[in-house]
Amino acid sequence: MFLEWDPAPIASASIGQVHRAITRDGRAVAVKVQYPGVDEAIGADLDSAGLVFKTMGLAFPGFEPGPMVDEIRARVVEELDYENEARNQQLFADWYRDHPFIHVPDVVPELSTARVLTSELAEGVRFEVMATWDQAERDLAAEAIYRFVFRSLYRLQAFNGDPHPGNYLFRPGGQVTFLDFGLVKHFTPGEIDVFGDMIRALVVDRDTARYRRIIEQIGLLAPGTPVSDEQVYDYFSHFYEFVLHDEVVTITPQWSTEVVSRFFEPNGPHGPVMKAANLPPSFVIIQRINLGLMAILGELAATANFRRIADELWPWVDGPPSTPMGEAEAAWLAARHGDPGTGTGTAAPAAR
């Protein structure tokens, strides 16, 4: 099938590994090949995971494991299907085509199957190398990742749910190539509206009572939970802390560690809210932002005015560019997608 094939993999993960190759028409490509039998093994793992999550219900009385397990199973089964991944990857590649600093490799469909995914070969250094660059370069890389995640979520209404250091390639100047689109969650306009309502209530209007009503309506917190609005704010505001104020902040490893502790320490100071909290299906994958993306930004000590960047990306604000990268992205949006405010055109309509 290929003119040349490098038998030594350039990357490996839990369900497959990647090889360099040259196509018969001379194109350099990366070929991801799934391990034989991995689908059966993961099926057994998912059965075990269901038991684990049911046990968690003993420590977290508000947690309903059934819908969460079903959501995880659906997404993981999709991840095993490289044809599905190819469609997701090409969706992102087409939408971000000619972007000034975000790159997604094109799929080579004629050399891809349900167990083999061939893409154009991308260049760049791995995360551990980029992390040794000076802070200015690390901040540019962090801003690119942040913009990719939230631009995709709010404008494309899709989230690449595996924010992992191994899924990026970096070049100087904030140039980032995004790899691995096996775990992609597509959201409905209604789900995006809910995310926006939550942000407007807690971050923009500082209306904790309204925020509480929203999360009760969607099942994130049981109605009538015996905790005060102040306790609700103290628990949930940490997840929005870096965009609460119009100021330059640094996301630290300590902050990221605190995010994790709020999920998994039921006997800590936030235990009353945590024990009553639930995780609706639409929030299962989105929590990877808190547990994955913010851990990466914390490791980079990412420094920026994230509130102003968020204002650019939130459809209900459509703020002006706040950084040089924002100016470059606004010009690209205007040229490729028409209205630089909505960022739509080839994508689904943005939530309003």
Can you tell me about this structure?
By secondary structure, this protein is an alpha+beta fold. The chain has one domain (36-104, 123-352). The protein is 47% helix and 12% strand. The chain is built from 14 helices and 12 strands. The chain has helices spanning 38-59, 65-79, 82-95, 127-130, 135-156, 189-204, 208-217, 229-236, 253-264, 271-276, 281-284, 287-299, 306-313, 324-336; strands at 4-5, 11-12, 16-22, 28-34, 102-103, 116-120, 158-160, 168-171, 175-178, 184-186, 249-250, 303-304. Strands 1, 2, 3, 4 and 6 form a 5-stranded antiparallel sheet that branches. Helix 5 (135-156) packs antiparallel against helix 12 (287-299) and helix 6 runs antiparallel to helix 7 (208-217). Mean pLDDT is 87; it is low at 340-352.
The fraction of residues assigned to DSSP E strands is 5-15%
Radius of gyration, in Å, reads 21 Å
Q: What class would the helix/strand composition place it in?
A: alpha+beta
Number of strands: 12
- State the helical fraction: 40-55%
Identify the overall geometry.
Answer: globular
